[in-house]
């Protein structure tokens, strides 16, 4: 029995491509591949998408709504940024050039902030998804990931935001720095994480001096790898919370992202007296693409 | 005319091997190769050294004095750490196992600190070299590099020290993070460096939020690569200075390292009202190996 979507939702990041065959807000089927933006030339996007859609019956014509790095300068077509304050899908869609006459590909705009300079691409769709379920939300969204975003939202608009490279720095330190010797292995240490968050928040200026201590404690005191890794994570997340204090202090906070990661942020925020609610990043992306599709239909009418 | 050293000085780091043919304190010849510790199995050290010494006439027997990662756990032979407070060559030499009867290889000890846990291996030799010229020094040595050391020295002893991974993190961010797009290229911007140091020192807790701004300013405002790179360096060195404030504040400071790097640290410290004197790292290593050789002869008598 063939899948006959009425439109296609696509989440196209740096290292992944995910597509959903949709009928209105209903998911009929899904597919994914490793053909992320970073792996493709400009001419490679359409074939990569067609490969993924091949099992589905798209009829004579179908709308594709795509978010993420597919809209970056190195992506399929550069989508503009809406400038804050703005609604998360505020800048209109960008049409990607296609050869196959059955396809219309609409890329979701990013969001930018002039001062301090900042950009997002992909998270705006998760924010739109969240707001489609919580129109009245007035508070802060934290979207942890490679580049964690802290986003002040009010009256259905993004007011301001701030990016921390915490995830990328954690990855570089654990995979490629001298600390890789100290943090290799499985397991986790909740208490070490919590202590490191507190420690880092109370003296964030000492971070530069604390990281190498993980290596030294490994050499001198056989510090367990799971403790070292949890402490490294806590030091970095603590430093991020210190930098983001104006965002979360005294505000309602919701977390959007991968469950393992939002759990860490919730624990760290909880120690600061902030009760953050967690939302799955994948679900918010799909909800945001559904909101984007609804907006596309509105615009077309 | 053949080179006939009376002893051999060796600086053997993670990625390099340098040897000097010595007569007392006089350098007769030098040689170097890429056979760093990281490139060698335990059995590979002696052949790598013999290759380098081949052009020299070492006679029936020669003492080799070596410092650096050659004494690490993954090195030729693990040399112990002296615990602070101690003189920089305080733990005695470790003999490396050799097959060639002409060689006696003496590895310089490292230095450790229990609380906060910290270690050094290689820098103790530079400190010994510095102290051989400045016995009366009472102040702080800063040795910038992959892992920068801040060292409190008094009465010819290392009192305490602190390591910052600034150089390694700068390298990872410029070569492997998303910032690589923003900092690629030649050139430098002194004013951007100075501003970033000041900025980072005055609000070190904001570091996590500032790094991604370099990327965003590149995308939105075409920030020049030389400005972005200088600003990145300034943000990290500023954060390090904030963490090392108890070391440099109100103390005499001397810098030991590569000239381009000590120049940056001198500029950053100068903006804090600290006039630091610079010393070449290579010269201090040789002076330290000469001091170590003198100590070896003393011990042997």
From TrEMBL, chains A, B:
Keywords: Kinase, Transferase
Plastid keyword on record: no
GO annotation terms (biological process): D-galactonate catabolic process
InterPro entries in alphabetical order: DGOK (IPR007729), DGOK_C (IPR042257), DGOK_N (IPR042258)
Ranges in coiled-coil conformation: none
UniProt-recorded Gene Ontology molecular function terms: 2-dehydro-3-deoxygalactonokinase activity
Transferase is among the record's keywords: yes
One Pfam assignment: DGOK
Protein name per Swiss-Prot or TrEMBL: 2-keto-3-deoxygalactonate kinase
Organism, as annotated: Tranquillimonas alkanivorans
């Amino acid at each position: 029995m063939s899948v006959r979507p009425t439109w296609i939702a696509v989440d196209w990041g740096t290292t992944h491509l995910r597509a959903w065959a949709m009928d209105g807000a209903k998911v009929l089927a899904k597919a994914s591949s490793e053909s992320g933006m970073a792996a493709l030339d400009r001419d490679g996007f359409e074939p990569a998408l067609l490969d993924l859609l091949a099992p589905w019956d798209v009829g004579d014509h179908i709308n594709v709504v795509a978010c993420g790095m597919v809209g970056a300068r190195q992506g399929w077509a550069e989508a503009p940024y809406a400038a804050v304050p703005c609604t998360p899908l505020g800048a209109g869609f960008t049409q990607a050039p296609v050869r196959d006459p059955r396809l219309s590909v609409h890329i979701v705009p990013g969001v930018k902030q002039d001062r301090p300079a900042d950009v997002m691409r992909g998270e705006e769709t998760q924010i739109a998804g969240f707001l489609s379920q919580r129109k009245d939300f007035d508070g802060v969204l934290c979207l942890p990931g490679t580049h964690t975003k802290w986003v002040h939202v009010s009256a259905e608009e993004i007011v301001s935001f701030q990016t921390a490279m915490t995830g990328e720095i954690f990855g570089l330190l654990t995979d490629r720095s001298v600390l890789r010797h100290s943090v290799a292995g499985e397991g986790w240490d909740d208490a070490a994480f919590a202590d490191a968050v507190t420690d880092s928040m109370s003296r964030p200026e000492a971070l530069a001096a604390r990281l190498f201590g993980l290596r030294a404690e490994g050499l001198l005191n056989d510090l367990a790898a799971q403790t070292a890794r949890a402490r490294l994570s806590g030091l970095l997340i603590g430093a991020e919370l210190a930098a983001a204090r104006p965002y979360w202090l005294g505000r309602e906070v919701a977390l959007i992202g991968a469950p393992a990661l939002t759990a860490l942020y919730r624990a760290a925020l909880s120690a600061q007296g902030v009760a953050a609610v967690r939302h799955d990043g994948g679900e918010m992306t799909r909800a945001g693409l559904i909101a984007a599709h609804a907006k596309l239909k509105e615009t077309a009418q």
